[in-house]
Every structure is written in C-alpha cells, then in structure tokens.
Amino acid sequence: MATIKLWFGRQNFHLLKSFLLLKIIAVVFAVLLFCEFLIYYLVIFRCNWPEVKIRAYDGKRETLEPVLKAMFLADTHLLGEVRGHWLDKLRREWQMERAFQTALWLLQPEVVFILGDIFDEGKWSSSQAWAEDVERFHKMFRHPRHVQLKVVAGNHDIGFHYQMSTYRIKRFEEVFNRERLFSWKGINFVMVNSVALEGDGCNICSEAEAELIKISHKLNCSREQAHRSSRCGDGQLLPASAPILLQHFPLYRRSDANCSGEDAAPPEERGIPFKERYDALSREASQKLLWWLRPRLVLSGHTHSACEVLHGTGIPEVSVPSFSWRNRNNPSFIMGSMTPTEHALAKCYLPFEDTVLITYCGAAGFLVVLMFIHFGLLASPFLFGWQLLRKFKTM
Ligand SMILES: [Zn+2]
Questions:
Q1: Can you tell me where the transmembrane regions are (predicted)?
Q2: Distance of CA 95 from the midpoint of ligand 1 (Å)
Q3: 278 C-alpha to center of ligand 1: Å?
Q4: I need a surface site. Which of 57, 69, 140, 202 has the fewest CB within 10 A?
Q5: What average pLDDT does range 160-184 have in this prediction?
C-alpha cells in the first residue's frame, strides 16, 4: 500500500513539475515575442507620413506635385571586431534590423537615406573585418528592389580627416556607390562627403570641393532655365528645384544650447562649444555649402541627438539622432514627405529601451512569484483572497 502511495506521489510531483515548466515556457515565449518582435509593430504603427502641400501654381494653372516618401536615419554604428562585444553586437543589430524591417513594411518609404557612421570601425578595420561588417549591414538593411537605399560617409566609416585615405573612401564607395547627386520625382538631393571638407587643400578635399562646384553649376543651370547661360550647354537638365543637402557633419553651429525636445542632447552637454571640423563643419565649409548649393533643407547626423537650427536666410537644418539603442534610450528616424517645392518632416520614435527592460524585469518577477506559489512557499493570491472572504463570512 505504502509503495502505491509513493508511486502516486511521485507521479503527481512529475505532473506538477511539467505543468510548471509549461507555464514558464509560455511566459518566456510570450515576453520574448512581445519585446523582440511585436513591440516594434505596436510602436512604429503609430507613425504617419506628414502631410505636405501638393498644389503648386505653374504660371496660371494649378498643378498637383508628386510626393516622395523619404526616410532619414543616422549613426547606426554597427560594431566592429575590436570594440564590439559579441552580445552587445547581437542585441543592437537585432534591434536595428527589426526596427528597420518593421518600418519598411508598415510605412513603405520609397527612398531611405543613412546619414553616415554606418559602421563603428570602418576607420581602422582590416579588409576581412570590413567585408564581414558589410555583409551584416546588407542583411540588416535588406530592402525590396523598388526601395532605394542611399548612404553618405561618416568619420567612423572612412576616418576623420587625418585618418581618411583614398583606400578607405574607395572601399566605402565600392559598397555604397559614389553618387553625389540624386534626383527623383523632381527633387534634388546632394549627398556630401562632409569629412572631406576640411578646407586644407589636401587632394581628397580639393576633389570633393571641385565636385560640389560642378553640382552647384548644374543646379544653377536648372534654376535659370529661362535665361540659360551658354556655359550650361545642351546636357540634360536637373529638375528646377532647390536641393536637399544630406551630410554626416552638421553645418557649423556654436553648440547645442538652443536645441530642445526630449531627444536633444542632455542639458549638461548642450552648452559645450562645438569644435569646428570635429563636432561640426568649419564656418568656412558651411558657408561654402550654403553659397554653392543654396539648399532649402539640410539633414545631418554625427551628434547622436536631435536639434533644429536655422542658417543664413532661414534654411532649416535637422540633426537626425542616432538609430542605435547603444547611443540612445529613444532612437528615432525622420519621415519626410517631399515635393519639388515643399517638404514636411515628422519624427518616428522606436520603442524605448526602458520599456523593454522593465517588461523583462516584470516577467522575471512574475516567474519567481509563480514558482514560489507552485512550491507552496507563498500563498496564491486567489487562495489568500478566498480564505479571507470565508473568514469574514463566518464572523
Ligand atoms: Zn560621426
């Protein structure tokens, strides 16, 4: 008799154990699914393309201008083999991949611009490490054929001016194309290699400036279609629209003191003066860009924080914050609805890292309580409530 009881006891214990295991697996699976997958859909689903004025007057007629949906992100800093711990790498890259893929699926942009510092160690990585980083980039930022992905170089991709070399620039441009001018739906985008705007007359810098002057000339020809100078020739004209400037370094500004918003630089850092050619372009290079290209909007990266600045005669510049959770708790990207004459920008935040961590901690606490209840170390809240009710009834 005693052996049968013991046998039933053991069976019950095994059943209880496997039931507990099932509960734990279900909770872990649900939390992982939420934190690593669903949260991106829930958060990015709330982002909408901003509305832009599409009616323009062409002489006497009213015309409807086409709208280009463009997404801008910056400073992804894919970790390299020297500074990147494998777990950090795995975590950050998974987060960025999920965020990017979800945004592509939900928002359907036509073109995506990444404003530099795609890699963290492009400035010193060996050719093998570079090839591995590039392969991971292509996997994370895969996109359908009809979506264009354009990239500008940052100081972490090719090095600051003193580290930059023709070899590094070439290997970057072999992967990402060396195009500087991109026109679509009547909108001109100029993609500047801002690291080469040191202004010291080095070979790379002189070439970069010469290229920009050429682009400036082309843009001027398209602007003055009615009174074209003979120097414009008969070549194909660009759309007659002021360009949008895309670069890694921001145009010169004293500091981030006038920046505001929840993703601006922290208050204690805002007042720190910017170093020219390090935190931002030099005054001289910034002036040149504004004179040569006469942009209607500038978008830049590098600072990892958000800011909006007005330059010269009111040309707005938007600093796009970092897209990586390694650099921010609240990464984001910019959604732009563009027409040849107008633009409207909106920011789309990604899930906050805090939310994910709190959810994991909450789930871990819940599992501990579940196990305590299961092994009778803690009275189940339901049982406790029931007993309390009974007590009151009998009183
Ligand atoms: Zn940078």
A1: 20-43, 357-386
A2: 20
A3: 9
A4: 57
A5: 90
